[in-house]
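Side project, low priority. Logging it here so it doesn't get lost.
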Amino acid sequence: VRAKSQHYDLLSAIQQLAFAIGPGCVEVLKVPAHVSRGCYENDLERWLIAGNESADRLAKSVNAARPAAVWSLWSAFADQLALCSEQASIARSHILAVSKFWNEAAAHDRPAVPQVSRPQRQARVQPEPHLTVPATLELTGQSFRRFFGLDLFRRVSAWFSSIRASDRPLQWISFHQLFISFLFRFGGV
């Protein structure tokens, strides 16, 4: 019995009873529903049809004996089920319509709207870089070693001698570029 099959609860109870009785002792047969007693070909079919009629009468009597609260609850459930089914149908129709719209829109090759670039205007005032170097900035080997330690002094000395070409004149390089060059060659500080 599959878990999502119709009448799973009833069929699983029958299956448990059949296992409890033992294999080969129980046979489950499908009974034709709403068939008159005269439409049988053998005793087994007559017995099945009579049993089905008895089960139908018993089910009707049980339903008739239920209190009114059960039927009002069942009626409210049926109304909610109908409303949810109707809303689900509307939502499904909307989803299908949107899907159809996008599939049709994708099928047509619409030309893309050209992007117009805005003209760039020149700034009224062009910024000029200013470098203010104090005249008293003097860092000799001894003061550098004293301020920053021997290890960093050795690394900076090795780096500085590796980037300076003695046959060419010195050029101005920003401190930022020098720092990046140092980090690239010798790692972090």
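Brief comment: The radius of gyration is 46 Å.
Revisit when time allows.
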